[in-house]
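Async update (no meeting this week)

Hi team, since we skipped the sync, here's where things stand on the single-chain job. The sequence we agreed to prioritize is pasted below, unchanged from the tracker. I ran it this morning and attached the output directly underneath so nobody has to dig for it. Comments welcome in thread, and please keep replies under the output.
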Amino acid sequence: MHDPKEAAAELRRTVTEFGFKGALVNDTQRAGPDGDDMIFYDNKEWDIFWQTCVELDVPLYLHPRNPTGTMYEKLWKDRPWLVGPPLSFAQGVSLHLLGMVTNGTFDRNPKLQVIIGHLGEHIPFDMWRIK
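Output:
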């Protein structure tokens, strides 16, 4: 999931050739020379991928990942007990999904289906703050 056109083509291939029912990706991809750049899927450049999901009528599961690199060093190193299910999973996926909502991904692709696991990664519990 580093290139929207390649991701769309691979999704189409796996669904049409192999019968996949959707896709699962980590909430962000790491990029850049040191691996600290983070790729989010909420910008318009990713619409080609989202349009492919809609056209194929398949969902995408936005799955959490452990923090790495300097993000881990700056935020989590001194509190490793919060990595994973206690907090970092929900923080990462919530940031990504709320970015998709507020940057218009679902406005541009109203039939898009995104799956968020683990009881909604805090979003249902934080709705009173978000709206």
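Quick observations from my side:
The mean pLDDT is 92.
The chain has one domain: 4-130.
Reply here if anything looks off.
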